[in-house]
Amino acid sequence: MLMRLISGDRPRSAILTVVLLAIFLGLLLAPFLFPGVRSLETAARISVFILLAASYDLLLGYTGVVSFAHTMFFGMGAYGVGLASQHMGRGFGSLIVGSLAGAALAAAFAFVIALFSLRVRAIFFAMITLAVASAVAVLVSQLSQITGGEDGFTFQIPRALGPANRMGEFMGVSITGKILNYYVIFFTSLAFFLLLLRIVNSPFGRVLQAIRENDFRAEAIGYRVVRYRTIATCISAAMAAVAGSLFALWLRYVGPETTLSFEIMLDILLMVVIGGMGTIWGAAIGATLMVLAQTYLQDLMGSAAEATLAVPMLSRLLDPDRWLLWLGVLFILSVYFFPAGIVGRLRAGR
Amino acid sequence: MTDLLQTRDLTVRFGGHVAVDAVTCAFKAGELTAIVGPNGAGKTTYFNLISGQIPASSGTVQLMGEEIGRLSPSERCRRGLGRAFQLTNLFPGLSVLENVRLAIQAHRPVSGALFSMASSHSALTTEAMSVLERVRLDGVRDQKVSELSHGNQRKLEVAMLIALDPKVYMFDEPTAGMSADEAPVVLDLIAELKADTDRTILLVEHKMDVIRTLADRIIVLHNGELVADGDPAEVIASDVVQEAYMGKELTDV
């Protein structure tokens, strides 16, 4: 049963199993293990980014296609939910319609981009996605009547998912709509994550791996490489849009900064690379690490700086304002020591 | 016997160099044709034109009477044109079994391709195993291809071609670099394939003893041109072949 759920793709390393279980249980029980607004915020963010990074890995790790438009697809899902809730009124119907519309639009965009560029060369695809993503980002900030421009806009989500919806206490934690909202996000993300895991372990996924390994031979034994790459791109885009919808649902806000910015694109790239390309599990680890680092590294450095006040140079280096520097150092080190990502390293070390 | 494969005036130019020059040739079912010629004669290029890796400058390729000269390599393969490569050309990060399964899956639509587990398609696995047994690779089914010995990689290359179950088999020096005790496995297999009379086999080969045992017919390419075509014994003895080979390799045999 469990094997079918994870599509027979075992972590294949004891440490990895423990880490993945810890992430799973941590997220599953987050409202009870880590009460507090900020930790729930972090857990929700992790849930969303695991799905986003996993969907990107389907492209980068399994198909060998580099895309810079993943935040655009992410944004389509987010704006889909935002606009639907704004115009159709708050309600679960708006959420579903918005998500489906966002995913469909993302898949359609991906299809057109793939059709025009994958035929030529994979690198061309990277350039086209960069151009299209920039154009869409500009468009979103210009069409401020519809999108709220640079400021974005807030919208209302169903009352059941709002903080005002109190449903009593459980294990000493008062259960509000906010926690319910968290579980909607967590379980949706989990379901799509498992779906991605299934897709990469399906006969279709095997062909994608074959194409990544040797596209020349894949074509020679009868696979239409362009068609497979196009389908993978569309699935990946639709999944990213779903992640975007979840993110908007959590934030009750959409704006270019939270969904379309190039920084997020880089974050996704790093999550996949650090976790380990070509393993959906890697995306889960990479996303968790990145979000945790982004959220807590500053705090950690703040206390470290205080502790080392007596040491002149060190305390300056550890100043919380330097957190990006240290994040950068961590990336370089991890890519240097784990070129195959954390999952690749752990599996090789069996 | 019918012509399974036919090329007419098949030509490719790279700049001013004509690598394959107006080769017209037909290959019948139940026949094994050896393609010989010195290095650089255009044998592999001729293969590439037939299987579609390189587009032809002019001329046509027909498979079972249908023009396939403008189709993609994958489409040609699906229509029954199978090709093994001279330089081993596999999926190095995947297992031996997975490589063969992929070749079988390529010409057999699987149900639930997107949402079923690859490992649940046991019919594919069974068939892949029977192919691996034929080339004696069943013992290393779970090894990564990049970890295989050269000889075993060559065998897998042949297994991939058999797994495609094509109408036209194209072997490009299948035993190159194989040890003396490994080569017979592959050669026996090719002899077995020959017994199947509705297929045709094209074999690029340098070793004359192999050609003498297996070939029903020899064609000779020299500077991209077809210079001889016929019964193996006659062609080997002919002046044109002796000249093409600079009187070396062939007289040695």
The total domain count of chain B is 2
CATH topology of chain A: ABC transporter involved in vitamin B12 uptake, BtuC
End-to-end Cα distance of chain A, whole Å, is 25 Å
Q: Report the helical percentage of chain A.
A: over 70%
Going by CATH, the architecture of the largest domain in chain B would be: 3-Layer(aba) Sandwich
Order of helices and strands of chain B: EEEHEEHEHHHEHEHEEHHH
Rg of Cα set of chain A: 21 Å
Per CATH, the class of the largest domain in chain B reads Alpha Beta
| Low-pLDDT sequence parts of chain B | none
What are the segments of chain A in which pLDDT stays under 50 over at least 5 consecutive residues?
Answer: none
How large is the radius of gyration of chain B? 18 Å
Strand tally of chain B is: 10
Strand proportion of chain B, as a percent range, falls in 15-25%
Number of domains of chain A: 1
Please describe the biggest sheet of chain A, giving its number of strands, its sense, and whether it closes into a barrel.
Answer: 2 strands, antiparallel
Quote the average pLDDT of chain A: 90
Q: How would you describe what is shown here?
A:
The complex is a heterodimer of chains A (350) and B (253). Helix content of chain A is 74%, strand content 4%. Chain A has 18 helices and four strands. Chain A has helices spanning 2-5, 14-28, 30-33, 37-60, 70-88, 92-117, 122-142, 144-147, 177-200, 203-213, 215-220, 225-251, 256-259, 262-275, 280-307, 312-317, 323-337, 341-348; strands at residues 153-154, 166-170, 173-176, 253-254. Chain B has a six-stranded mixed sheet, sandwiched between helices. A four-stranded antiparallel sheet of chain B has the order 2-1-4-5, covered by helices on one side. Chain B is 35% helix and 25% strand. In chain B, helix 3 crosses helix 4 (122-134) and helix 3 (96-106) runs parallel beside helix 5 (150-164). Chain B folds into two domains: 1-79 and 196-253, P-loop containing nucleotide triphosphate hydrolases (Rossmann fold, 3-Layer(aba) Sandwich); 81-165, 3-Layer(aba) Sandwich (Rossmann fold). The interface between A and B is medium-sized, with 27 and 36 residues. Chain A: Its main location: membrane. Chain A: One of its GO terms (molecular function) is branched-chain amino acid transmembrane transporter activity. Chain A: This is Branched-chain amino acid ABC transporter permease. Chain A: It is a multi-pass membrane protein.
